[in-house]
Write a structure and sequence with these properties.
about 35% strand, 3-stranded antiparallel β-sheet, glutathione-dependent formaldehyde- activating enzyme (gfa), 10 strands, 3 helices
């Protein structure tokens, strides 16, 4: 089986990246932090193992913000235009990254597995039918298929072992 290759980039064209395969999970997050960090109603992140993401051109700059867990969340942005391309979260460190789906050349490539933090969504936002929605977070181990759970567990174990 050949893995699907997708590419994306920033708003000014300085940064281009490639991601290989399918994400472990995809969230559409409506938390206040995501709203503030994007200046929008929500963000859609597709989480991949870090080694599946390759920077093809350009330079990134990391911006540290506080994650919902209180830990350090890094937003990797284009060094020129500031477009957010992916995020690194405390739980997995650099072993995994949440690619901002809107920066993909085909932003409709991934359907969210879940809509999260609906408790803080804008009152006029309508949630999509057929996608599980949660007031805060959900248990990925209960929602995702076994092969994706195994990928997530492998990253968690690597992180516990001191990687990332």
């Amino acid at each position: 089986m050949v893995d699907t290759v997708r590419e994306g980039g920033c708003g000014c064209g300085h940064v281009r990246y490639r991601v290989v395969g399918e994400p472990i999970f995809v969230n559409n997050c409506h938390c206040r932090l995501c709203q503030q960090q994007t200046g929008s109603t929500s963000v859609v992140n597709a989480f991949f193992e870090g080694e599946r993401i390759t920077l093809l051109q350009g330079e990134l700059k990391d911006h540290a913000v506080t994650a919902g867990s209180g830990g350090r969340h890094l937003i990797c942005r284009c060094a020129k235009c500031g477009s957010a391309l992916w995020s690194i979260y405390p739980r997995l460190g650099r072993l995994g990254a949440g690619v901002r789906v809107g920066t993909l050349d085909d932003p409709g490539a991934f359907r969210p597995d879940a809509v999260i933090f609906t408790e803080s969504k804008m009152p006029w936002v309508t949630l999509p039918e057929g996608i599980p929605a949660f007031e805060t977070v959900y248990n990925q181990f209960e929602l995702l298929p076994p092969e994706r759970v195994a990928r997530l567990e492998a990253l968690i174990e690597r992180r516990k072992a001191g990687e990332g």
